[in-house]
Amino acid sequence: MAQTGAAVSGGCSMDLGAQGNATGTSTGPVSVPRADGRVDQFQVFHDSTATQGLPFVWHRGQSAPGGSYGAWERVSAGTVGPKASFVTAVENAAGGLEVFWLDHGGFCHSVQGPTGGQWSTPENFGLRPSSYHGFLTLFKRSDGTLMAMASSGKPDRSMESRTQPGSDGVWRPAAAMGKVPETDIGLGQPGTVTELPDRRLKVTAREWNRDRYWQITEVAPDEGTPGGRWPSQWQLCAASRCD
């Protein structure tokens, strides 16, 4: 008998009763440039057959640079939201696609190989900010290493990151990215991520629900080193640009 209704797979919420009928958009498309010149897009669509009322992530891609897009196809039965329909994606060093979306305050993750085809079963990505403290920010370093960063509600850190070296394509465990040196202060998601000439990253973030900005710069480039290479504390910026 076919499964219906709600389920949890890999720590992600699933709506196994939804038939995959895109009936209305929840977000605008997110475009992902590919190394070969093509562009892929991701968008969140509602489904009239959904049993939980939550939307899903869909994907389409160009068959050639500058060409037309193929049909939208649902990535999985993993639900997006509620309250916010965040989605982001990136091409990894191997030429595959990785997509992330919000799922009940945490982030779910699915991967498609370099030749296309079926997406992997959604899995919980392991980063979870405090409620309403923003989404996930992705950054690709000049050497192809991927960084995923998000605000953190853990008592020993204000933000944390995961690193995927291009050499093996394996996401490393979450590493602390320092702590704001004031009590009861949280950060939103990274506002800017800049790779400096020496390949270290500088990250800025707005203080949650307050018009102040903070910055932190790597001690050395993080290429998957256990524990990361971030200072213990963030620095308050004199201006919003953190110049």
Shape: globular
Which stretches are low in confidence, meaning pLDDT under 50 for 5 or more residues running? none
Query: How many extended strands?
Result: 19
Main sheet summary: 5 strands, antiparallel
The radius of gyration computed from the alpha-carbon positions, rounded to a whole number of angstroms, is 18 Å
Q: Structural class of the helices, strands and pairings?
A: mainly beta
What oligomeric state best describes the polypeptide chains here?
single chain
Topology order in helix (H) and strand (E) letters: EEEEEEEEEEEEEEEEEEE
The average pLDDT score comes to: 91
Strand content: 35-45%
- Terminal CA distance reads 60 Å
Please give the share of residues in helix: under 10%
Q: Could you walk me through the main structural features you see in this protein, from its secondary elements to its overall organization?
A:
The N and C termini lie far apart (60 Å). Strand 9 (97-103) and strand 10 form a beta hairpin. With 243 residues, the protein is mainly beta. The strands form 5 sheets. Strands 3, 4, 5, 6 and 7 form a 5-stranded antiparallel β-sheet that branches. Strands 8-9-10-11 form a 4-stranded antiparallel β-sheet, with no helix packed on it. The protein has no helices and 19 strands. 0% of the residues lie in helices and 41% in strands.
